[in-house]
Amino acid sequence: GALLVNERIDREELCGALSPCSLSFEIVVENPLELYSGTVEIQDINDNDPVFPSSQARLEISESVAAGARFPLESAQDPDVGINSLQTYQLSANPNFALDVQTRVDGSKYAELVLEKELDREEQRELNLVLTALDGGSPPRSAHVQIHIDVVDANDNAPVFNQSTYKASVRENTPSGTLVARISAYDLDDGPNGDIVYSFSSHTPAKVRELFALDSATGELRVKGQLDYEETKLYEIYLQAKDKGAVPGVAHCKVLVEVVDVNDNAPEVTVTSVYSPVPEDAAPGTVVALLSVTDLDSHDNGLVNYVNDNAPKSSQDSYDVYVLENNMPGIPILNVSATDPDLGRNAHLSYTLLQGDPTFGHLFSINRENGTLYLLTSLDHEEQMEFNMMVQVQDGGFPPLATNVSVSVFVTDLNDNAPMVLYPHPNTTATYTDVVAPGTPAGHMVTKVVAVDADAGYNAWISYTLLQATDPSLFSVGLHSGEIFTARQLREDDAPEHTLVILLKDHGEPVLSTSATISISVAEMVKEVLTDLTDVAPANDPRRHVTFYLILAVILVSAAFFITMLSVGIFKCYKWRQSKELYNSSRSTTYRTPGPFHHIDAVRSGFTPPSFYHQVYLTTDSRQSDLLCKKPFTSSPLGSRQGTIRNGEPGLYHQIVGTASRLPTPAE
């Protein structure tokens, strides 16, 4: 039962910086069968010297730096652990600097120069110091580095970080290029003295530089290598900001990056012992094999549960769904189907819509229990024709297993856009006049109607037809091109001006259409057309003012005559109505019509709204007259308007103005 060393043991090779360093083993004892676990701890001895990255270090320090300024120095590395690891630093005697030894979170040491007395470049241009690193062995081992300090003039202001310590957390499976943190510093100087360059501090370990990358211009710290929670749980990264002055000002900060564990390690099953063959008369409960399961993850990710070994499986890896645009909101468009061969909770499936695009949450929703995908709003083919998303199907196991299914939703086009005319422009007051010369032969292209349709496919196919023309036999239009040609040769007796109305229709269902109006002038040159359109009188014609005043005089006389005749007619009508009202008042009250008082009562008592009040005018011989009713009042910017119709509307109160020789019959 003795446990022997089989070969020379190197603790640093086996465990590196991990402490304690232990090796585990298992022992099986038979008759009776028992299983024992054991651990051998490898203890460290001081067999390694501290080592600096380089034998010399050079610093440039401005004479304007105030006392108390700190300057990080190159850190030494010692692969030993515990008391045998690097314990302290020592600095050679000098009048300006002292040494401050700091301890990191992991217990390692690093040194910083602290300026106790301000430097004077005129008194001393450079300093040479010796930094010694000592471990805690007995006797201690050491390493030395020469520090050369140049005292030079520098700009007045050094960069300043907005905080001295940054904290961030990142998952261990984070891909390369992922942003971890963004450090920021400012410098009050101008020009190059104010431009800041970010970099790793000198005592940042090489392993950290392999795992993280720092953008020198933006200060963005990103993942560069593969992080592993099982290897390192926390990284302490020291960064610095320098300006571009002749003597750069430097500021330092620290970034603490916590690595978050993910379930990236599958459980490992180890068969410790197998007893085979098994006798046919073995009693129930007889041990057949010994199994052990381990998981390198931590916390809940490292808990091992012997169930849920099947991920959900969808009937399809991807779905293509076609939806008509202008749909009703809230309709189901797809049912994602999946199964899981496990039992119980491990087979309970839930469906989730992964939010790759933030806008999808406002457009689509999925039922978590049955996988029905709903469309929450109305889609427009002209706005977006395709949506791609991912549906995750997850079981209820611990840890859960999931399967992703891609879904593509295609918005099919409806004919919901009429053709739009680009030329001639429909929304302008300018007149588009095309010119064709007399005698132009048949087949000559005069102009072209240009139009587009926002729809797609067959719905956007535009056809052009001649709807109306001054002379339908003179021009023709291309059915699909919109080009206007002469259908025959122009003759001298053809009209000089032609107006064409072109009908544009698409081929959708239902058909949508619009029209365009084209003006064509028959002239030898453009100057003749412009003369016809502008109708400008010659500037040297002395009779143009006389003609204008004659026309104005005729208009004024005609207007005065019209106003006079209109006033006389209104006065005559007023006198005639007064005589009628006097005549009606002398007749029997049995046949008298309601007066204005009754009209007001009828309107105000709610029998009919005032806007639907009608007046009816009858002649004395109403059996041969038509019933004239005023239309309801309607409001407009020019005031109230009334019209007459030649029939009455039932259910409306009517005021009778005039008299009748007898009561009308129901038929009348």
Description:
This protein is mainly beta and 668 residues long. Among the domains are: 11-42, no CATH class; 56-152, Cadherins (Immunoglobulin-like), CATH 2.60.40.60; 160-260, Immunoglobulin-like; 313-412, Sandwich (Immunoglobulin-like), CATH 2.60.40.60; 420-522, Immunoglobulin-like. 11% of the residues lie in helices and 36% in strands. The chain has six helices and 42 strands. The strands form 14 sheets. Strands 3-9-8-5 form a four-stranded mixed sheet, with no helix packed on it. A four-stranded mixed sheet has the order 11-18-17-14, with no helix packed on it. Strands 22-29-28-25 form a four-stranded mixed sheet, with no helix packed on it. The longest helix has 42 residues, at 544-585. Its main location: membrane. It is a single-pass type I membrane protein. Keywords: Calcium, Cell adhesion, Cell membrane, Glycoprotein, Membrane, Repeat, Signal, Transmembrane, Transmembrane helix.
What is the CATH third-level topology name of one domain? Immunoglobulin-like
Give the percentage of residues in beta strands.
35-45%
> Mind telling me the CATH class of one domain?
Mainly Beta
N-C termini distance: 132 Å
Give the count of helical stretches. Answer: 6
Structural class by sheet pairing and helices: mainly beta
